[in-house]
């Protein structure tokens, strides 16, 4: 028998502790969103008056031709303003993108007990974690999302430990994306006067993770969020979204763009990947590049999937604004810290916009 979802602890046990996820709850046939998922009014997403971002995707094949400098300028401009852009001709095969979306749907359609073996308390591998919401223990309202997270160390360990249902496509996705990540980061760092050799590159993107997010259909999308307002913690995120839409980014107040201060939707573009700047790149660039504040709406008609690759420094890495930039700016806007301390602060708090950066802020930020 389905538990009573009006009772908070019975809901928490079913969805979070027993690993049924939001998907398991929706499959019991609920007709309205339980109280635990109702967001405070200021976090609810009103779809009706949101604009769509009207920026053409950047064609990365042009990086290798005579337009190289022009493309670098487009990438830099996007990183300095919105912290979000889309790319095409990125080197990841289009049929792989289709397989990834199918694989995510298939994985989340598995019976709960097949997914629940990867809950963090019991997972057979520290590389793999299945869960729901972001930090359910700390959240006032839960997020309408289940996920599987696969950390990368090397190909052999990925093939050994990642769930058999997703490992091949997830690993191909990661491996075919890395060249693009290196090119993008090389261009962004080059613009700051910093040349990256292979080992320096590894300092900033040494840690890699592939996630699959699943947002089940929701009876009251106007009351919930798929993911609450946040910026990503790491260096660069590569994101595959499906055709459903619902990814919003906040246009900062202080940039020269239309829709300042508003949430704009990043429209799905077939074959494109979304790139977003994470907190580490904002800090390394001493605030020139902006980590993007974003969030995800739910829908009542179809379940949505998205598949991000998160790149970041290794936990033991010391991070601080790059000296070349601090010298030019005359001031360091962030202090030095060890990345694992930033991670603990990030995962120790519910999503709250760009508050994550306060951990590293100095008075001059
Ligand atoms: O589902 C999406 O489009 C975005 C997901 C996201 O922001 C995240 O996983 O950090
Ligand atoms: Fe994100």
UniProtKB/TrEMBL annotation:
MF annotations from Gene Ontology: dioxygenase activity; metal ion binding
Start and end residues of each Fe2OG dioxygenase domain: 206-313
Example of a GO biological process term: coumarin biosynthetic process
Listed Gene3D superfamilies: B-lactam Antibiotic, Isopenicillin N Synthase, Chain
Sequence similarity: Belongs to the iron/ascorbate-dependent oxidoreductase family.
SUPFAM superfamilies the record matches: Clavaminate synthase-like
Species assigned in the record: Corchorus olitorius
Annotated protein name in UniProt: Oxoglutarate/iron-dependent dioxygenase
Cofactors, names only: L-ascorbate
A Pfam family that the UniProt record links to this protein: 2OG-FeII_Oxy
Lineage of source species: Eukaryota, Viridiplantae, Streptophyta, Embryophyta, Tracheophyta
Keywords associated with the record: Dioxygenase, Iron, Metal-binding, Oxidoreductase
InterPro entries hit by this protein: DIOX_N (IPR026992), IPNS-like_FE2OG_OXY (IPR044861), IPNS-like_sf (IPR027443), Oxoglu/Fe-dep_dioxygenase_dom (IPR005123)
Source species, domain of life: Eukaryota
Entry annotated with the keyword Metal-binding: yes
PANTHER family named in the record: FERULOYL COA ORTHO-HYDROXYLASE 2-LIKE, OXIDOREDUCTASE, 2OG-FE II OXYGENASE FAMILY PROTEIN
């Amino acid at each position: 028998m389905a538990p009573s979802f009006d009772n908070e602890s019975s809901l928490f046990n079913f969805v979070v502790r027993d690993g049924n996820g939001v998907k398991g709850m929706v499959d019991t046939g609920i007709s309205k969103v339980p109280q635990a998922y109702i967001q405070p009014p200021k976090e609810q997403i009103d779809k009706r008056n949101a604009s769509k971002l009207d920026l053409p995707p950047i064609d990365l094949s042009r990086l290798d031709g005579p337009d190289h400098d022009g493309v670098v300028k487009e990438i830099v401009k996007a990183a300095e303003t919105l912290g979000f852009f889309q790319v095409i001709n990125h080197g990841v095969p289009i049929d792989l993108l289709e397989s990834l979306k199918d694989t995510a749907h298939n994985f989340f359609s598995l019976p709960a007990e097949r997914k629940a073996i990867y809950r963090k308390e019991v997972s057979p591998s520290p590389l793999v974690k299945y869960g729901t919401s972001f930090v359910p223990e700390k959240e006032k309202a839960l997020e309408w999302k289940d996920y599987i997270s696969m950390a990368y160390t090397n190909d052999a360990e990925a093939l050994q430990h990642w769930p058999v249902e997703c490992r091949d496509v997830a690993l191909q996705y990661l491996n075919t994306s890395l060249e693009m990540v290196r090119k993008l980061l090389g261009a962004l760092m080059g613009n700051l006067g910093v040349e990256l050799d292979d080992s320096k590159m590894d300092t900033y993107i040494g840690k890699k993770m592939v996630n699959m997010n699943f947002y089940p259909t929701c009876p009251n999308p106007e009351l919930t969020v798929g993911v609450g307002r946040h910026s990503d913690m790491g260096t660069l995120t590569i994101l595959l979204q499906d055709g459903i839409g619902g990814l919003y980014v906040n246009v900062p107040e202080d940039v020269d763009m239309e829709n300042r201060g508003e949430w704009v939707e990043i429209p799905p573009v077939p074959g494109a990947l979304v790139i977003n700047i994470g907190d580490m790149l904002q800090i390394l660039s001493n605030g020139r590049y902006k980590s993007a504040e974003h969030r995800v709406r739910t829908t009542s008609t179809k379940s949505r999937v998205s598949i991000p690759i998160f790149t970041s420094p290794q936990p033991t890495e010391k991070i601080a604004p790059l000296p070349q930039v601090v010298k030019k700016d005359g001031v360091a806007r962030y202090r030095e810290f060890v990345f694992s301390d930033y991670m603990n602060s990030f995962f120790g708090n519910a999503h709250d916009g760009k508050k994550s950066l306060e951990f590293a802020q100095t008075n001059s930020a």
